[in-house]
Amino acid sequence: MSEPLEPHQQMKRMSRRSFLWAGVAVFGTYGGVTWLASRRDDDGVAWPFRKVLEANEQLQRDLYNGMALAPTFDPARAIEPTVNSLDEEANVEELDIDEWRLSVAGLPGLDEPMQLTMAQLKKLPKIDQTTELNCIEGWTAIVHWTGVRFVDLIDHITGELMKKAKPEDRSGLKTRPEYVGLESVEGFYYVGLDTPSALHPQTLLAYEMNGQPLTLEHGAPIRLVIPTKYGIKNIKRIGTITFGSARPKDYWAEQGYDWYAGL
What we know:
The chain is of the alpha+beta class.
């Protein structure tokens, strides 16, 4: 039977073992980082990370409840949110609001994009809601918004198309493509959404913020308000809305962020 080790001998063995395990951990981490860095790019990020993001997206979509509402707040708590630094690069001063038109395309029966003016949008039911804007960088702001529900606009367009359609074609007009893409007037920014989220009852096309018309920096003439998503999906100065069966491009997803960006 071997003699028990003296305390100083035990400490020496433990230190040597700890050093070896630390070395394994360091080299393992280095190898893992090196391996990830050498993987092919998939939409702005190494493909293993993209697979994790896609798995997260599928889970969020499965858990999504189109009737579950985001929290609402007393309008007295509303503040002005931070202006995104991207707006400084978008030359927003050049936008002529009087000449602005919203283009909607890709809906069944819509052979050519439909052009809508602000006056036409304001004929739809006016909605006020006070919700929280959640920036992916960590800050939040309670904001009071005024505008029209996204779903009300789409239902209005579908209703107009059904008036002109043959009876046998009307049922097909009620179908909705799986995705919708939105792009800013200047083409600098663009987001992709799953259609159920776009048609959520709290998703707005807002033209006022905290009781005042939107400024260009905050998204005039209209911006998207979608409290079930992070702020990166709340696109400003919308110029085009396009429905389709393929997942549309998304500015921040191309930079490596989650495409779904749900809360």
